[in-house]
Structure formats: C-alpha cells, structure tokens
Amino acid sequence: MSKNALIIGSGLGGLSTALRLSSKGYKVVVLEKHSTPGGRMNIIEIDGFRFDMGPSFMSMTYEFDELFDSVGIKNPVEFEELEPLYQVYFEGKNKPRRIFKDLQKLQEEFSDVEPDLAAKADEYLKRAGHFWHDTEDKVVKSNFDSMIKYLLKLATVPWKHIPYLYRTMWSEVDKQFKSEEVKIIFSLVAFFLGATPFQTPAIYSLLNYTEMRHNGYWRIKGGMYKLVEELVKILKERGVKFYF
Fold first, then answer.
1. pLDDT by residue (tens digit) across 162-209?
2. Would you identify the CATH topology of the domain 3-79+223-243?
3. Mean pLDDT over all residues of the chain?
4. Domain ranges of the chain
5. Radius of gyration of the chain (CA)
C-alpha cells in the first residue's frame, strides 16, 4: 500500500518536508495558492533582471547541508559569506555604519561613540551563546504535542537563563552598551521577527549570537531564489506533483 502526503504551501518548510517525505517513499503532492513556489523567498523579474522579494541573506546554512545529506544529495547551491554582514544608515549621518562579525573591526567602526566595544560585545555574545547552546537541542529543535511536555523540557534548561524571559531585547542591550547606535545595532534582529526590541523578549538575543559568532550571514550565489528553484527541480525529478 502506497504512502501519500499532501503538503499545503511551497515555502522552504513545505519544500524541505516534501524532500524528506519523498526520500522515505511517500507519494507527495504540494498545493500552493500563489503562481510560483517559494513562499516568502520569492522574486520579481523586470526587464530581464531578478530581485529578491524576501530574504536577501540567511544564517545557519549548515541546516541545508544536513537536509541534503539526509536524503543523499549534494547541496546544489553555493553559499557566499558576508563580511561586513550589512550596513546601517542612521538619520543625519553622512555615511553608513558597517556591521562586522570581526569584533575588532566593529570596534573601529564605532570607536567614536562606544569605547571598548569589542570587549563589551564579546561579553554580550558569550552570554547569548551559552543560552543558545543550552536550549538549541532541548527546545529550539524539539517538537511538542502538549504543554506538559514543553514545560517539562523547559525545566531542564539552566535556571540562570530565566531572566531572559522577563526582559526585553532593548533592556538587555541598554545595560550592556552606552551608545544609542550600538544598542540599535544589537537589537535590529527584533525587526527581522516583525516586532520591535521594546516588546521582543530578550531570549531572541541568541540571534545576535548566530549572526556574529555561530554561523554569520550568507547569500546564495546566483540569488536566494536559486535554492527554491533547485529544490523544486529535485522534487519534480522524484515525482513530486505541484499544483499552483
């Protein structure tokens, strides 16, 4: 008896799930309400030029290596690391601030407003790194089908991290840095979540760790949408059906 799977949505989550299920022998059908696959990772084409409509870079690229390794496929895209990570334009300033993973370079960039930034940032990122490594496998990468299981697993996280639940990202950076610009830089990840640092819990400071220590930011050679195109190509070769 054949195993069938219906996936609604062709974003990266849907495409990745389709790949894993097809490799396990499932007959997979993907339904997508839009005319193209990719979800938030999509493009717009104008006069032969392609522009990313969604993410223009990513972190934790090793997750894609794991995805393709798990189904016996070589990663079909090439990642290029970003350094500096990005630039930030502050109102009233003549030039942008470049944001580096290299803390010495970051310190030089903000030497006029934040003395000893490298040491302060290192302390901040170490704290965020401890939180990341203490929660990644226990919470971040776990699925919970009940509140009880979630709370029991959460209880295994070291209690030293509890204050993260009651502070905001802004309060976290406010006690670590002096300069308003630097505080903004280290709380920008809140906007990636569609929120503000004044309402986002401090637990998301772990994203600072992933961007500046753990893996950094990367782009895909040929454009971010190339990942979607390669996944769809592989899935069609494996017999996965798409309906747009």
1. 888 889 999 999 999 999 999 999 999 998 888 999 999 998 898 999
2. FAD/NAD(P)-binding domain (3.50.50)
3. 93
4. 3-79+223-243, 83-216
5. 21
